[in-house]
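Changelog excerpt

This revision adds worked examples to the README so contributors can see how folded entries look when concatenated. The first example is reproduced verbatim below.
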Amino acid sequence: MASFQIISSSSSLRIKSSIQFPELPKLPSSYNYVPSRNLFQELNGFRFTTLPTFQQPSSSSSDATQQLYAILEAVADRVEMHRNLAHQRNNWNTLLLNNINMLTLTATAMAAIAAATPIFPLKIASTFLFSAATGMMLVVNKIQPSQLAEEQRNATRLFKQLQSQIETTIALGNPNEEDVKKAMKKVLAIDKAYPLPLLGVMIEKFPSKFEPAVWWPQQQRRTRSNSRRSNGWNEGLERELMDVLEVVKRKDMEDYERLGNMVLNINKSLAVVGPLLSGIAAVGSMFVSEGSSLAAMVTVTCGALATAVNALEHGGQVGMVSEMYRNNGGFFQLLEDSIEEAVEEEGEDGELFEMKVALKLGRSVSELRELASKSAYSRVEGIPIQHHDEFASKLF
Protein backbone atom coordinates (compact mmCIF):
# COMPACT_ATOMS: atom_id res chain seq x y z
CA MET A 1 0.00 0.00 0.00
CA ALA A 2 1.13 3.55 -0.62
CA SER A 3 0.86 6.32 2.01
CA PHE A 4 1.63 10.01 1.75
CA GLN A 5 2.63 12.25 4.75
CA ILE A 6 2.69 16.10 4.64
CA ILE A 7 4.87 17.91 7.22
CA SER A 8 4.75 21.68 7.40
CA SER A 9 7.13 24.11 9.06
CA SER A 10 7.69 27.78 9.03
CA SER A 11 10.70 27.68 6.81
CA SER A 12 9.72 25.11 4.25
CA LEU A 13 7.11 22.66 3.20
CA ARG A 14 8.33 19.18 2.95
CA ILE A 15 6.40 16.36 1.35
CA LYS A 16 7.39 12.94 2.39
CA SER A 17 6.10 9.99 0.51
CA SER A 18 6.64 6.36 1.02
CA ILE A 19 5.49 3.57 -1.25
CA GLN A 20 5.09 0.06 -0.01
CA PHE A 21 4.47 -2.89 -2.39
CA PRO A 22 2.93 -6.18 -1.36
CA GLU A 23 5.26 -9.11 -1.19
CA LEU A 24 4.91 -11.65 -4.02
CA PRO A 25 4.67 -15.30 -3.11
CA LYS A 26 7.85 -17.24 -3.56
CA LEU A 27 7.86 -19.83 -6.33
CA PRO A 28 9.09 -23.31 -5.67
CA SER A 29 12.61 -24.13 -6.69
CA SER A 30 11.28 -26.23 -9.58
CA TYR A 31 10.09 -23.00 -11.26
CA ASN A 32 13.48 -21.38 -11.12
CA TYR A 33 13.88 -21.70 -14.96
CA VAL A 34 15.78 -19.26 -17.08
CA PRO A 35 14.56 -19.12 -20.70
CA SER A 36 17.24 -20.46 -22.96
CA ARG A 37 18.01 -20.02 -26.65
CA ASN A 38 16.28 -23.33 -27.42
CA LEU A 39 13.01 -22.01 -25.96
CA PHE A 40 13.33 -18.85 -28.02
CA GLN A 41 13.91 -20.88 -31.16
CA GLU A 42 10.94 -23.16 -30.43
CA LEU A 43 8.63 -20.18 -29.85
CA ASN A 44 9.72 -18.62 -33.12
CA GLY A 45 9.54 -21.76 -35.21
CA PHE A 46 13.26 -22.56 -35.29
CA ARG A 47 14.81 -25.94 -34.78
CA PHE A 48 18.47 -25.07 -35.07
CA THR A 49 20.70 -26.55 -32.39
CA THR A 50 23.29 -23.96 -33.29
CA LEU A 51 23.10 -20.69 -35.12
CA PRO A 52 23.94 -20.96 -38.84
CA THR A 53 27.29 -19.74 -39.92
CA PHE A 54 27.74 -17.70 -43.06
CA GLN A 55 30.85 -18.12 -45.11
CA GLN A 56 32.17 -15.83 -47.75
CA PRO A 57 32.24 -17.45 -51.22
CA SER A 58 35.63 -18.64 -52.31
CA SER A 59 37.50 -16.97 -55.14
CA SER A 60 36.98 -20.00 -57.42
CA SER A 61 33.22 -19.90 -56.78
CA SER A 62 33.17 -16.17 -57.52
CA ASP A 63 35.03 -16.70 -60.80
CA ALA A 64 32.63 -19.49 -61.79
CA THR A 65 29.67 -17.24 -61.03
CA GLN A 66 31.07 -14.49 -63.24
CA GLN A 67 31.68 -16.95 -66.06
CA LEU A 68 28.14 -18.33 -65.76
CA TYR A 69 26.76 -14.80 -65.98
CA ALA A 70 28.78 -14.27 -69.16
CA ILE A 71 27.38 -17.51 -70.62
CA LEU A 72 23.91 -16.46 -69.53
CA GLU A 73 24.19 -13.22 -71.50
CA ALA A 74 25.26 -15.15 -74.62
CA VAL A 75 22.36 -17.59 -74.19
CA ALA A 76 19.85 -14.74 -73.84
CA ASP A 77 21.21 -13.22 -77.06
CA ARG A 78 20.84 -16.54 -78.88
CA VAL A 79 17.24 -16.83 -77.69
CA GLU A 80 16.47 -13.50 -79.33
CA MET A 81 18.32 -14.37 -82.55
CA HIS A 82 16.61 -17.71 -83.01
CA ARG A 83 13.21 -16.21 -82.20
CA ASN A 84 13.68 -13.52 -84.84
CA LEU A 85 14.82 -16.05 -87.44
CA ALA A 86 11.82 -18.25 -86.70
CA HIS A 87 9.48 -15.34 -87.51
CA GLN A 88 11.50 -14.44 -90.60
CA ARG A 89 11.56 -17.94 -92.08
CA ASN A 90 7.90 -18.50 -91.34
CA ASN A 91 7.21 -15.34 -93.35
CA TRP A 92 9.40 -16.75 -96.14
CA ASN A 93 7.23 -19.83 -96.30
CA THR A 94 4.00 -17.84 -96.56
CA LEU A 95 5.38 -15.35 -99.10
CA LEU A 96 6.99 -17.93 -101.40
CA LEU A 97 3.97 -20.24 -101.21
CA ASN A 98 1.60 -17.48 -102.33
CA ASN A 99 3.93 -16.18 -105.04
CA ILE A 100 4.55 -19.59 -106.60
CA ASN A 101 0.86 -20.44 -106.59
CA MET A 102 0.00 -17.12 -108.20
CA LEU A 103 2.64 -17.70 -110.89
CA THR A 104 1.44 -21.19 -111.74
CA LEU A 105 -2.24 -20.22 -111.75
CA THR A 106 -1.60 -17.16 -113.90
CA ALA A 107 0.51 -19.18 -116.33
CA THR A 108 -2.17 -21.86 -116.49
CA ALA A 109 -4.84 -19.29 -117.31
CA MET A 110 -2.64 -17.71 -119.99
CA ALA A 111 -2.01 -21.10 -121.61
CA ALA A 112 -5.74 -21.84 -121.69
CA ILE A 113 -6.46 -18.47 -123.29
CA ALA A 114 -3.62 -18.91 -125.82
CA ALA A 115 -5.18 -22.18 -126.95
CA ALA A 116 -8.43 -20.38 -127.74
CA THR A 117 -7.07 -17.17 -129.27
CA PRO A 118 -4.19 -16.48 -131.67
CA ILE A 119 -2.36 -14.20 -129.20
CA PHE A 120 1.30 -15.21 -129.40
CA PRO A 121 2.56 -13.10 -126.44
CA LEU A 122 0.27 -15.06 -124.09
CA LYS A 123 2.07 -18.30 -124.96
CA ILE A 124 5.47 -16.68 -124.35
CA ALA A 125 4.33 -15.18 -121.06
CA SER A 126 2.88 -18.51 -119.95
CA THR A 127 6.15 -20.32 -120.72
CA PHE A 128 8.15 -17.67 -118.86
CA LEU A 129 5.90 -17.79 -115.77
CA PHE A 130 5.97 -21.60 -115.63
CA SER A 131 9.77 -21.55 -115.91
CA ALA A 132 10.05 -18.98 -113.11
CA ALA A 133 7.69 -21.00 -110.91
CA THR A 134 9.73 -24.15 -111.55
CA GLY A 135 12.97 -22.45 -110.54
CA MET A 136 11.41 -21.02 -107.39
CA MET A 137 9.96 -24.41 -106.47
CA LEU A 138 13.39 -26.03 -106.76
CA VAL A 139 14.91 -23.46 -104.39
CA VAL A 140 12.05 -23.53 -101.89
CA ASN A 141 11.89 -27.32 -101.86
CA LYS A 142 15.62 -27.43 -101.21
CA ILE A 143 15.61 -25.13 -98.16
CA GLN A 144 12.13 -26.02 -96.79
CA PRO A 145 11.25 -22.70 -95.06
CA SER A 146 8.62 -24.28 -92.80
CA GLN A 147 11.21 -26.76 -91.53
CA LEU A 148 13.73 -23.95 -91.03
CA ALA A 149 11.20 -22.04 -88.95
CA GLU A 150 10.53 -25.11 -86.81
CA GLU A 151 14.26 -25.60 -86.27
CA GLN A 152 14.59 -22.06 -84.94
CA ARG A 153 11.55 -22.47 -82.71
CA ASN A 154 13.09 -25.61 -81.23
CA ALA A 155 16.42 -23.84 -80.75
CA THR A 156 14.65 -20.95 -79.00
CA ARG A 157 12.94 -23.35 -76.60
CA LEU A 158 16.17 -25.24 -75.85
CA PHE A 159 18.16 -22.06 -75.22
CA LYS A 160 15.43 -20.76 -72.91
CA GLN A 161 15.56 -24.08 -71.07
CA LEU A 162 19.34 -23.76 -70.75
CA GLN A 163 18.94 -20.17 -69.58
CA SER A 164 16.65 -21.33 -66.79
CA GLN A 165 19.10 -24.08 -65.79
CA ILE A 166 22.00 -21.62 -65.53
CA GLU A 167 19.90 -19.20 -63.49
CA THR A 168 19.00 -22.03 -61.11
CA THR A 169 22.67 -23.01 -60.74
CA ILE A 170 23.58 -19.44 -59.85
CA ALA A 171 20.67 -19.08 -57.44
CA LEU A 172 21.63 -22.26 -55.55
CA GLY A 173 25.04 -20.72 -54.90
CA ASN A 174 28.63 -21.93 -54.96
CA PRO A 175 28.91 -22.92 -58.64
CA ASN A 176 32.16 -24.54 -59.67
CA GLU A 177 34.28 -24.94 -62.78
CA GLU A 178 32.44 -28.12 -63.74
CA ASP A 179 29.16 -26.18 -63.96
CA VAL A 180 30.82 -23.70 -66.30
CA LYS A 181 32.16 -26.47 -68.55
CA LYS A 182 28.76 -28.17 -68.73
CA ALA A 183 27.02 -24.92 -69.65
CA MET A 184 29.57 -24.20 -72.39
CA LYS A 185 29.22 -27.68 -73.86
CA LYS A 186 25.43 -27.38 -73.93
CA VAL A 187 25.58 -24.02 -75.71
CA LEU A 188 27.94 -25.34 -78.38
CA ALA A 189 25.90 -28.53 -78.81
CA ILE A 190 22.70 -26.56 -79.49
CA ASP A 191 24.61 -24.26 -81.86
CA LYS A 192 25.74 -27.30 -83.82
CA ALA A 193 22.34 -28.96 -83.83
CA TYR A 194 20.47 -25.82 -85.00
CA PRO A 195 22.80 -23.61 -87.05
CA LEU A 196 21.81 -20.04 -87.87
CA PRO A 197 23.19 -19.66 -91.45
CA LEU A 198 21.84 -21.46 -94.49
CA LEU A 199 24.89 -21.84 -96.71
CA GLY A 200 27.34 -24.61 -95.89
CA VAL A 201 25.97 -25.71 -92.51
CA MET A 202 22.23 -26.06 -93.15
CA ILE A 203 20.72 -29.28 -91.82
CA GLU A 204 20.13 -31.82 -94.57
CA LYS A 205 16.41 -31.68 -95.36
CA PHE A 206 16.22 -34.99 -97.23
CA PRO A 207 18.52 -37.51 -95.54
CA SER A 208 18.53 -41.10 -96.73
CA LYS A 209 17.14 -42.23 -93.37
CA PHE A 210 15.22 -40.60 -90.56
CA GLU A 211 17.59 -39.60 -87.75
CA PRO A 212 16.52 -37.99 -84.43
CA ALA A 213 17.91 -34.57 -83.61
CA VAL A 214 20.84 -34.45 -81.14
CA TRP A 215 21.29 -31.19 -79.23
CA TRP A 216 23.08 -32.34 -76.08
CA PRO A 217 26.81 -32.99 -75.51
CA GLN A 218 27.89 -36.60 -75.41
CA GLN A 219 29.55 -37.22 -72.05
CA GLN A 220 31.93 -39.95 -71.06
CA ARG A 221 30.32 -42.03 -68.36
CA ARG A 222 32.08 -42.69 -65.11
CA THR A 223 32.19 -45.76 -62.90
CA ARG A 224 29.39 -46.15 -60.40
CA SER A 225 30.20 -45.13 -56.84
CA ASN A 226 29.01 -47.33 -53.97
CA SER A 227 28.28 -44.24 -51.85
CA ARG A 228 25.49 -43.42 -54.26
CA ARG A 229 23.15 -45.94 -52.63
CA SER A 230 22.43 -43.49 -49.83
CA ASN A 231 21.32 -40.79 -52.27
CA GLY A 232 17.75 -42.01 -52.69
CA TRP A 233 18.74 -44.83 -55.05
CA ASN A 234 18.09 -48.54 -54.64
CA GLU A 235 17.79 -51.57 -56.85
CA GLY A 236 14.03 -51.25 -57.01
CA LEU A 237 14.20 -47.71 -58.39
CA GLU A 238 16.86 -48.70 -60.91
CA ARG A 239 14.75 -51.64 -62.09
CA GLU A 240 11.70 -49.38 -62.34
CA LEU A 241 13.50 -46.85 -64.54
CA MET A 242 14.90 -49.55 -66.80
CA ASP A 243 11.41 -51.03 -67.21
CA VAL A 244 10.08 -47.59 -68.19
CA LEU A 245 12.97 -47.19 -70.61
CA GLU A 246 12.07 -50.51 -72.20
CA VAL A 247 8.59 -49.16 -72.99
CA VAL A 248 10.09 -45.95 -74.38
CA LYS A 249 12.35 -47.91 -76.71
CA ARG A 250 9.84 -50.49 -77.90
CA LYS A 251 6.81 -48.22 -78.23
CA ASP A 252 7.51 -44.49 -78.41
CA MET A 253 10.85 -44.45 -80.19
CA GLU A 254 9.87 -47.08 -82.76
CA ASP A 255 6.56 -45.33 -83.45
CA TYR A 256 8.19 -41.96 -84.02
CA GLU A 257 10.84 -43.51 -86.21
CA ARG A 258 8.11 -45.09 -88.34
CA LEU A 259 6.16 -41.83 -88.59
CA GLY A 260 9.31 -39.83 -89.23
CA ASN A 261 10.33 -42.04 -92.14
CA MET A 262 6.81 -41.87 -93.58
CA VAL A 263 6.66 -38.05 -93.48
CA LEU A 264 10.21 -37.81 -94.83
CA ASN A 265 9.31 -39.98 -97.83
CA ILE A 266 6.14 -37.98 -98.47
CA ASN A 267 8.11 -34.74 -98.38
CA LYS A 268 10.71 -36.15 -100.78
CA SER A 269 8.00 -37.16 -103.24
CA LEU A 270 6.25 -33.80 -103.10
CA ALA A 271 9.55 -31.95 -103.52
CA VAL A 272 10.18 -33.84 -106.77
CA VAL A 273 6.65 -33.96 -108.18
CA GLY A 274 5.94 -30.23 -107.82
CA PRO A 275 8.82 -28.90 -109.99
CA LEU A 276 8.38 -31.84 -112.39
CA LEU A 277 4.75 -30.93 -113.09
CA SER A 278 5.59 -27.26 -113.40
CA GLY A 279 8.44 -28.07 -115.80
CA ILE A 280 6.16 -30.21 -117.97
CA ALA A 281 3.66 -27.35 -118.03
CA ALA A 282 6.41 -24.95 -119.11
CA VAL A 283 7.40 -27.22 -122.01
CA GLY A 284 3.79 -27.87 -122.96
CA SER A 285 2.99 -24.15 -123.05
CA MET A 286 5.58 -23.72 -125.81
CA PHE A 287 3.46 -25.90 -128.10
CA VAL A 288 0.15 -24.32 -127.25
CA SER A 289 -1.52 -22.70 -130.22
CA GLU A 290 -5.00 -22.10 -131.52
CA GLY A 291 -6.65 -25.45 -132.01
CA SER A 292 -3.96 -27.51 -130.20
CA SER A 293 -6.22 -29.05 -127.62
CA LEU A 294 -3.83 -31.80 -126.48
CA ALA A 295 -0.95 -29.42 -125.64
CA ALA A 296 -3.33 -27.06 -123.91
CA MET A 297 -4.89 -29.88 -121.87
CA VAL A 298 -1.47 -31.17 -120.74
CA THR A 299 -0.30 -27.68 -119.85
CA VAL A 300 -3.40 -26.71 -117.92
CA THR A 301 -3.59 -30.03 -116.08
CA CYS A 302 0.08 -30.02 -115.06
CA GLY A 303 -0.11 -26.37 -114.04
CA ALA A 304 -3.12 -26.99 -111.82
CA LEU A 305 -1.56 -30.10 -110.28
CA ALA A 306 1.72 -28.25 -109.63
CA THR A 307 -0.23 -25.60 -107.74
CA ALA A 308 -2.01 -28.24 -105.68
CA VAL A 309 1.21 -30.09 -104.85
CA ASN A 310 2.98 -26.88 -103.84
CA ALA A 311 0.04 -25.87 -101.65
CA LEU A 312 0.01 -29.29 -99.99
CA GLU A 313 3.77 -29.34 -99.35
CA HIS A 314 4.30 -25.82 -98.09
CA GLY A 315 0.79 -24.82 -97.09
CA GLY A 316 0.53 -28.04 -95.13
CA GLN A 317 4.08 -27.46 -93.82
CA VAL A 318 5.18 -31.04 -94.35
CA GLY A 319 8.77 -29.98 -93.67
CA MET A 320 7.73 -28.60 -90.29
CA VAL A 321 6.01 -31.90 -89.44
CA SER A 322 9.16 -33.81 -90.41
CA GLU A 323 11.25 -31.59 -88.14
CA MET A 324 8.73 -32.03 -85.32
CA TYR A 325 9.11 -35.81 -85.51
CA ARG A 326 12.89 -35.43 -85.67
CA ASN A 327 12.83 -33.30 -82.52
CA ASN A 328 10.50 -35.68 -80.68
CA GLY A 329 12.76 -38.58 -81.59
CA GLY A 330 15.65 -36.62 -80.09
CA PHE A 331 13.63 -36.06 -76.94
CA PHE A 332 13.23 -39.80 -76.38
CA GLN A 333 16.88 -40.43 -77.25
CA LEU A 334 17.92 -37.84 -74.65
CA LEU A 335 15.59 -39.45 -72.11
CA GLU A 336 17.22 -42.81 -72.78
CA ASP A 337 20.72 -41.39 -72.34
CA SER A 338 19.69 -39.58 -69.15
CA ILE A 339 18.20 -42.70 -67.55
CA GLU A 340 21.17 -44.90 -68.46
CA GLU A 341 23.60 -42.28 -67.19
CA ALA A 342 21.68 -41.81 -63.94
CA VAL A 343 21.55 -45.57 -63.30
CA GLU A 344 25.22 -46.15 -64.07
CA GLU A 345 26.75 -43.10 -62.42
CA GLU A 346 26.57 -41.21 -59.18
CA GLY A 347 24.11 -38.41 -59.85
CA GLU A 348 21.32 -36.42 -58.33
CA ASP A 349 18.85 -37.67 -55.75
CA GLY A 350 17.05 -40.79 -56.97
CA GLU A 351 13.54 -39.74 -55.94
CA LEU A 352 14.04 -36.33 -57.55
CA PHE A 353 15.20 -37.94 -60.78
CA GLU A 354 12.18 -40.26 -60.74
CA MET A 355 9.87 -37.26 -60.44
CA LYS A 356 11.64 -35.51 -63.35
CA VAL A 357 11.23 -38.56 -65.59
CA ALA A 358 7.54 -38.76 -64.69
CA LEU A 359 7.02 -35.09 -65.56
CA LYS A 360 8.85 -35.45 -68.88
CA LEU A 361 6.49 -38.26 -69.82
CA GLY A 362 3.42 -36.34 -68.67
CA ARG A 363 2.74 -38.71 -65.77
CA SER A 364 2.58 -38.67 -62.02
CA VAL A 365 5.06 -40.72 -60.01
CA SER A 366 2.40 -43.32 -59.23
CA GLU A 367 1.50 -43.61 -62.94
CA LEU A 368 5.17 -44.04 -63.78
CA ARG A 369 5.48 -46.88 -61.29
CA GLU A 370 2.33 -48.48 -62.69
CA LEU A 371 3.83 -48.32 -66.18
CA ALA A 372 7.00 -49.98 -64.90
CA SER A 373 4.91 -52.74 -63.30
CA LYS A 374 3.18 -53.44 -66.62
CA SER A 375 6.53 -53.56 -68.38
CA ALA A 376 7.91 -55.97 -65.78
CA TYR A 377 4.81 -58.15 -66.10
CA SER A 378 5.24 -58.29 -69.88
CA ARG A 379 8.86 -59.33 -69.44
CA VAL A 380 8.01 -62.09 -67.00
CA GLU A 381 5.07 -63.41 -69.05
CA GLY A 382 6.99 -63.15 -72.30
CA ILE A 383 4.46 -60.76 -73.90
CA PRO A 384 6.00 -58.34 -76.44
CA ILE A 385 5.64 -54.73 -75.37
CA GLN A 386 4.65 -53.80 -78.94
CA HIS A 387 1.31 -55.55 -78.36
CA HIS A 388 0.37 -53.10 -75.59
CA ASP A 389 -1.69 -50.05 -76.49
CA GLU A 390 -0.15 -47.79 -73.86
CA PHE A 391 2.80 -45.60 -74.75
CA ALA A 392 5.28 -44.27 -72.19
CA SER A 393 4.69 -40.61 -73.01
CA LYS A 394 1.36 -38.85 -72.62
CA LEU A 395 2.70 -35.60 -74.03
CA PHE A 396 3.59 -36.56 -77.61
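The second example, added in the same revision:
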Amino acid sequence: MLPAAARLTRSQEFRLVVRRGRRSGRSRLVVHALRPDQAPEPGRYRGEALPEAEANTAPTRKSTGSTRVGFVVSKAVGTAVIRHRVTRRLRHLMRDRLAALPAGTLVVVRALPAAAEASSRELGADLDAALRKLRVLSPDGPATGSR
Protein backbone atom coordinates (compact mmCIF):
# COMPACT_ATOMS: atom_id res chain seq x y z
CA MET A 1 0.00 0.00 0.00
CA LEU A 2 1.24 3.48 -0.81
CA PRO A 3 1.33 5.92 2.09
CA ALA A 4 -1.25 8.71 1.88
CA ALA A 5 1.49 11.31 1.31
CA ALA A 6 2.58 9.42 -1.83
CA ARG A 7 -0.82 9.42 -3.58
CA LEU A 8 -2.36 11.73 -6.13
CA THR A 9 -5.99 12.04 -5.11
CA ARG A 10 -7.63 15.01 -6.83
CA SER A 11 -8.65 15.34 -10.44
CA GLN A 12 -6.75 18.65 -10.69
CA GLU A 13 -3.52 16.83 -9.76
CA PHE A 14 -4.10 14.16 -12.41
CA ARG A 15 -4.99 16.84 -14.97
CA LEU A 16 -1.83 18.81 -14.17
CA VAL A 17 0.44 15.80 -14.66
CA VAL A 18 -1.26 14.60 -17.85
CA ARG A 19 -1.40 18.05 -19.47
CA ARG A 20 1.92 19.53 -18.34
CA GLY A 21 4.10 16.45 -17.83
CA ARG A 22 5.99 14.25 -20.25
CA ARG A 23 4.55 10.96 -21.51
CA SER A 24 6.08 7.60 -22.32
CA GLY A 25 3.98 4.79 -23.75
CA ARG A 26 4.59 1.06 -23.64
CA SER A 27 2.53 -1.90 -24.81
CA ARG A 28 0.77 -2.34 -21.46
CA LEU A 29 0.83 1.12 -19.89
CA VAL A 30 1.46 4.82 -20.36
CA VAL A 31 3.40 6.80 -17.77
CA HIS A 32 3.03 10.58 -17.36
CA ALA A 33 5.61 12.33 -15.19
CA LEU A 34 5.96 15.93 -14.07
CA ARG A 35 9.24 16.84 -12.42
CA PRO A 36 9.29 19.75 -9.95
CA ASP A 37 11.33 21.89 -12.36
CA GLN A 38 8.66 21.39 -15.07
CA ALA A 39 5.70 22.48 -12.94
CA PRO A 40 4.02 25.68 -14.11
CA GLU A 41 4.51 28.82 -12.10
CA PRO A 42 1.32 29.37 -10.07
CA GLY A 43 -0.81 32.05 -11.69
CA ARG A 44 1.36 32.30 -14.81
CA TYR A 45 1.29 30.49 -18.14
CA ARG A 46 3.94 31.34 -20.74
CA GLY A 47 4.25 34.87 -19.40
CA GLU A 48 0.50 35.51 -19.43
CA ALA A 49 -2.30 35.12 -16.95
CA LEU A 50 -3.76 31.62 -16.91
CA PRO A 51 -6.88 31.17 -19.01
CA GLU A 52 -9.94 30.46 -16.88
CA ALA A 53 -10.08 26.82 -18.06
CA GLU A 54 -6.44 26.30 -17.01
CA ALA A 55 -6.69 28.10 -13.67
CA ASN A 56 -7.53 24.94 -11.74
CA THR A 57 -4.52 22.91 -12.97
CA ALA A 58 -2.24 24.31 -10.26
CA PRO A 59 -1.12 21.81 -7.61
CA THR A 60 -3.71 21.48 -4.87
CA ARG A 61 -1.39 20.58 -1.99
CA LYS A 62 1.57 22.43 -0.59
CA SER A 63 4.71 21.00 -2.16
CA THR A 64 6.34 18.90 0.53
CA GLY A 65 8.95 17.50 -1.81
CA SER A 66 7.45 14.03 -1.70
CA THR A 67 7.01 12.00 -4.86
CA ARG A 68 3.34 11.26 -5.52
CA VAL A 69 1.72 8.67 -7.78
CA GLY A 70 -1.76 8.13 -9.22
CA PHE A 71 -3.25 5.32 -11.28
CA VAL A 72 -5.82 5.28 -14.09
CA VAL A 73 -7.31 1.88 -14.94
CA SER A 74 -10.37 2.22 -17.16
CA LYS A 75 -13.17 -0.23 -17.90
CA ALA A 76 -11.42 -1.07 -21.17
CA VAL A 77 -8.92 -3.08 -19.09
CA GLY A 78 -11.60 -5.48 -17.86
CA THR A 79 -14.09 -6.19 -15.12
CA ALA A 80 -13.80 -4.62 -11.67
CA VAL A 81 -11.88 -7.63 -10.33
CA ILE A 82 -9.30 -7.40 -13.12
CA ARG A 83 -9.01 -3.61 -12.84
CA HIS A 84 -8.39 -3.81 -9.09
CA ARG A 85 -5.81 -6.58 -9.59
CA VAL A 86 -3.94 -4.44 -12.14
CA THR A 87 -4.10 -1.43 -9.81
CA ARG A 88 -2.75 -3.45 -6.87
CA ARG A 89 0.14 -4.74 -8.98
CA LEU A 90 1.02 -1.28 -10.26
CA ARG A 91 0.75 0.20 -6.75
CA HIS A 92 3.12 -2.45 -5.40
CA LEU A 93 5.60 -1.89 -8.24
CA MET A 94 5.55 1.89 -7.80
CA ARG A 95 5.98 1.62 -4.03
CA ASP A 96 9.31 -0.12 -4.61
CA ARG A 97 10.42 2.62 -7.02
CA LEU A 98 9.39 5.72 -5.03
CA ALA A 99 12.77 6.15 -3.36
CA ALA A 100 14.57 6.07 -6.73
CA LEU A 101 12.50 8.94 -8.18
CA PRO A 102 13.51 12.60 -7.70
CA ALA A 103 11.78 14.31 -4.78
CA GLY A 104 8.65 16.22 -5.77
CA THR A 105 8.00 14.23 -8.95
CA LEU A 106 4.34 13.61 -9.82
CA VAL A 107 3.56 10.42 -11.75
CA VAL A 108 0.37 9.09 -13.33
CA VAL A 109 0.37 5.48 -14.55
CA ARG A 110 -2.39 4.66 -17.04
CA ALA A 111 -3.01 0.96 -17.67
CA LEU A 112 -3.89 -0.19 -21.19
CA PRO A 113 -6.09 -3.23 -21.95
CA ALA A 114 -3.02 -5.46 -22.45
CA ALA A 115 -2.16 -4.95 -18.75
CA ALA A 116 -5.02 -7.31 -17.81
CA GLU A 117 -3.11 -10.39 -18.98
CA ALA A 118 0.35 -9.15 -18.03
CA SER A 119 2.38 -10.58 -15.17
CA SER A 120 3.91 -8.37 -12.50
CA ARG A 121 7.32 -8.94 -14.08
CA GLU A 122 6.08 -7.64 -17.46
CA LEU A 123 4.37 -4.64 -15.86
CA GLY A 124 7.55 -3.91 -13.89
CA ALA A 125 9.69 -4.05 -17.04
CA ASP A 126 7.32 -1.67 -18.87
CA LEU A 127 7.25 0.66 -15.87
CA ASP A 128 11.05 0.73 -15.61
CA ALA A 129 11.44 1.35 -19.34
CA ALA A 130 8.93 4.20 -19.30
CA LEU A 131 10.46 5.85 -16.22
CA ARG A 132 13.94 5.60 -17.73
CA LYS A 133 12.75 7.13 -20.99
CA LEU A 134 11.23 10.01 -19.03
CA ARG A 135 14.59 10.39 -17.25
CA VAL A 136 13.10 10.16 -13.78
CA LEU A 137 14.73 6.78 -13.04
CA SER A 138 18.47 6.43 -13.42
CA PRO A 139 19.41 4.32 -16.48
CA ASP A 140 21.99 2.27 -14.57
CA GLY A 141 19.89 1.71 -11.45
CA PRO A 142 18.69 -1.83 -10.77
CA ALA A 143 15.08 -2.68 -11.47
CA THR A 144 13.47 -3.27 -8.10
CA GLY A 145 10.30 -5.18 -7.46
CA SER A 146 10.01 -6.62 -10.99
CA ARG A 147 9.96 -10.25 -9.94
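Reviewer comment on example two: Residues 80-97 form the longest helix (18 residues). Residues 45 and 51 are 8 Å apart (CA to CA).
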